[in-house]
């Protein structure tokens, strides 16, 4: 997977967004992957299937993105029901349950499921906040992440987006 993710960073699109069932997503994004990166495509689709099964949803929205700047610097809770995150390259998501006194961080390649404010019976107390890890303090060669995000198909107003978007 490391080789496929590294090859994707070298030759793949900066951003892929897709929405639909896993077969629909596969049909829409398969052309953005090569023989060297097809293992990454298969893993992305497997995680989309996993998310759909856990969330009980037939359709999902996924985003595979090359990130080279600090983003989502503050700890927060997303306005979604459930979100899956996986950093294929670079540091994983950071989280805290005590307002930042102790900060945990997912390993590269770890799959993280986070409850958002729209999760059934979500409550303010006892929630976990998360943020993107700061990249600016890392050596320049390490200031890149390849991040997969999977949500419900209509999360964050995505129902109005095109089913597939690939940005070089």
Helix content: 10-25%
* Class inferred from helices and paired strands: alpha+beta
Query: Which residues form runs of ≥5 with pLDDT under 50?
Result: none
**How much β-strand is present in the residues?**
25-35%
Largest sheet: 6 strands, antiparallel
Q: Tell me, what's the shape?
A: globular
State the distance separating the first and last CA atoms: 22 Å
Question: What is the oligomer described by this structure?
Answer: single chain
The Rg value, from CA coordinates, equals 16 Å
The helix count comes to: 3
Question: What is the string of SSEs from the N terminus onward?
Answer: HEHHEEEEEEEE
Order of strands in the sheet with most strands:
6-3-8-2-1-9
How are the elements arranged and paired?
Blueprint: H1 2-11, E1 15-20, H2 22-29, H3 38-55, E2 60-67, E3 82-89, E4 94-96, E5 104-105, E6 111-115, E7 129-131, E8 145-152, E9 164-167
Antiparallel strand pairs: 1-2, 1-9, 2-8, 3-6, 3-8, 4-5, 4-7
Describe this structure in words.
The chain has three helices and nine strands, in the order αβααββββββββ. The chain has a six-stranded antiparallel beta sheet with strand order 6-3-8-2-1-9. A three-stranded antiparallel beta sheet has the order 5-4-7, with no helix packed on it. The chain is globular, with a radius of gyration of 16 Å. It is of the alpha+beta class and 168 residues long.
Task: Describe the structure using short key phrases.
alpha+beta; three-stranded antiparallel beta sheet; six-stranded antiparallel beta sheet; globular; 3 helices; 168 residues; 21% helix; 9 strands; single chain
